[in-house]
Design brief:
Elements: H1 29-38, H2 46-50, H3 53-84, H4 87-95, H5 101-108, H6 111-114, H7 117-136, H8 142-171, H9 175-202, H10 208-229, H11 236-239, H12 248-257, H13 259-280, H14 282-289, H15 293-317, H16 320-333, H17 347-359, H18 363-374, H19 380-405, H20 411-451
Helix pairs in contact: 1-8, 3-4, 3-8, 3-9, 3-10, 5-8, 5-19, 7-8, 7-10, 8-9, 8-19, 9-15, 9-18, 12-13, 13-18, 13-19, 13-20, 15-17, 16-18, 16-20
Length: 452
């Protein structure tokens, strides 16, 4: 498979006109976009990404909105439980943060390229701020709060997809794009570790509605940062000369219709589906071991800690060329430490297995570069939206399937099976990817010969 460092400048499909290249800016975009072209072998790290002013703004906005979401999740569950006394309603409030993801991402994906990115991002933030503000109003009934929670989750995949696509405009589609996505991903994973603890502490000094008011403030701050701190760019579909009436199914066909892009998309979607299985079954497994809640908490932290550490290592210690070379081996090896579950091990071994699986998550940096290079410029926003949607949806499916399987099989057997299936699936997809690349090269060669 070709090395991501083989193509230095931002990826532009052959049919795209020159207007897809952003207008030069004194500091961010051209400097970021041409860094790879100047010296493809030069090692770039996270400091290079933070030197781009627009990315610093996007990063700060991400922190604001992410903290708002985390605080809202815990505050809403407490608010609904206190109002209803129903554990089911409280759990439903939390689940509504995930259930509308598939529907929203699929239906809204075409908007990601049809309208300017900054306008879409600011509109999503303001919509979420308005929903949070409506939740704060004491007269808002519980049913309306659940609807408002759904609305916030409905636009979340569109926001994530547009922001990911806009990183290619800000940082170029080279290594800085990969590192920028890595930073945003690590912040999200860190929020899972620290966010709920922070939210719990916040609720010791604030009522749930007061904490939700801070959520609304966070979204407003994010919208202001994005509006004032990022450049206005034209809609991606118009700039690339693509049609402006792409349907949701058309976006899926674009992702899954071309063999190489289909293999890359499935490589992004399917491995997390298997890796979430041990997380979904940690509580019954720890209970079976007789472990306490403190041990369970440590086990739940192991996988995200490993993932953050792996990305930090790959992004700061490895060159782009090395990351490209280790992408396939790490992707295949990632689920294999979970085979230790076959021996029904104790908590220390389980923690080590989860940490190792998380460390192998570093393969995503190389995969990110391959994906953005493969997606046509005019479809990048919708492709990123659908990519996020598929990942979130299939992780939910993986958790549900793991729970169903554990009704009939021991938890350690389910995790072991997921490890075997995960590695086999990744290996098969890598074979398909290589076959698609060989076919594409043959097609280009035949076209060149015909042209002569």
């Amino acid at each position: 498979m070709p090395s991501p460092t083989d193509s230095a400048p931002p990826d532009t499909p052959p049919h795209a006109p020159p207007v897809t290249v952003p207008v030069p800016d004194p500091v961010p975009a051209p400097e970021a976009a041409t860094a790879d072209a100047a010296d493809p072998a030069r090692h770039q790290g996270y400091r290079d990404v933070f030197r781009v002013r627009e990315f610093r703004t996007v990063f700060a906005a991400h922190l604001m909105s992410l903290l708002g979401v985390v605080v809202a999740e815990i505050a809403l569950t407490v608010l609904v439980y206190r109002a209803t006394g129903s554990p089911l309603m409280s759990a439903l409030t939390f689940a509504l943060g995930f259930l509308p993801y598939a529907l929203g991402g699929t239906l809204l994906a075409p908007l990601a390229d049809r309208f300017p990115a900054r306008r879409v991002l600011v509109a999503c933030d303001l919509l979420c701020a308005g929903c949070a503000a409506a939740m704060v109003w004491p007269a808002t009934p519980i049913g309306a709060i659940l609807v408002l929670r759904c609305a916030m989750a409905f636009v979340a995949p569109l926001f994530s997809g547009v922001r990911s696509a806009s990183l290619a405009d800000i940082l170029g589609s080279g290594e800085r794009f990969v590192l920028g996505r890595s930073l945003l991903r690590m912040v999200s994973q860190s929020a899972q570790l620290a966010g709920f603890g922070l939210g719990g502490l916040l609720l010791t000094v604030l009522a749930p509605r007061g904490a939700i008011a801070l959520t609304a403030t966070g979204f407003v701050a994010s919208a202001l940062l994005l509006r004032l701190g990022t450049r206005a760019r034209p809609a991606r579909a118009r700039a690339a000369g693509a049609g402006s009436r792409t349907s949701p199914l058309g976006g899926l066909r674009a992702l899954l219709g071309e063999p190489r892009l289909r293999a890359l998309t499935l490589l992004c979607w399917l491995p997390p589906t298997f890796v979430v299985v041990p997380e979904a079954l940690l509580t019954p497994y720890a209970t079976d071991l007789g472990a306490g809640t403190a041990t369970l908490g440590l086990l739940m932290c192991a996988l995200p800690v490993g993932a953050i550490s792996g990305e930090l290592w790959a992004g700061s210690a490895l060159t782009a060329r090395t990351r490209a070379r280790v992408t396939a081996p790490l992707a295949v090896l990632a689920p294999l430490p979970l085979l230790l579950y076959a021996f029904h091990p104790g908590a220390p071994v389980v923690m080590a297995a989860l940490l190792l699986t998380g460390l192998a998550h570093a393969y995503t940096l190389g995969l990110d570069r391959m994906f953005v290079d493969a997606v046509p410029e005019g479809l990048r926003g919708s492709a990123m939206t659908l990519l996020t949607t598929g990942m979130m949806t299939l992780q939910g499916v993986g958790m549900a399937a793991a729970g169903l399987a554990a009704e009939f099989l021991p938890a350690h057997a389910v995790v072991t099976g997921a490890a075997v299936l995960g590695s086999a699936t990744v290996a098969l997809l890598l074979v398909r990817l290589r076959a698609a690349e060989r076919s594409a090269r043959r097609s280009r060669d035949e076209t060149g010969l015909t042209a002569k």
